[in-house]
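Open question from group meeting: does this chain pack into something compact, or does most of it stay loose? Before anyone orders reagents, we agreed to write out a predicted structure and look at it together. Recording both the input and the output here so the notebook holds the full record.
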Amino acid sequence: MNPEDPESAQRVVAEYAGLLESEDAQTYPASIRTLPYPKQTIKAAILTCAATLRGTHQLTDEMREFLEQAYVALADYLDDDLVRVMAEYREALASVADVRSSRDRQQTPAWQRIAATSRLAGEIARAIADDTAALRQEFRTSA
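Structure tokens returned:
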């Protein structure tokens, strides 16, 4: 698969867009293993599609926005260990939300998990935000 070939790039982007639109992909961050192609291949394919559409005067504002959002969404695909940490953190937060008393809440295993992983979860979220901003800038300067 050559992401710099317009026809191949269109197929790569279509498969990736299908993933983004699927109901299974609604929990983020998601595993990088769920991507249909490596991140670099998808990035190159998106830029190829944007360039091809621009070259044929078919790059509408709507299509440019779609391609930018797809490009930026790559920041939400992480290694499995990071996805697991974030999932466990979310689950722990959800389970302590049901405990009424703050004293009882602090005694739960979920609270201990939150206390142990909150800094790491924050760092992961910050890294995703930084990657999102970098990808947005990269797309805007390249596309």
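Observations to bring back to the group:
The longest strand covers residues 30-31.
The chain has a mean pLDDT of 91.
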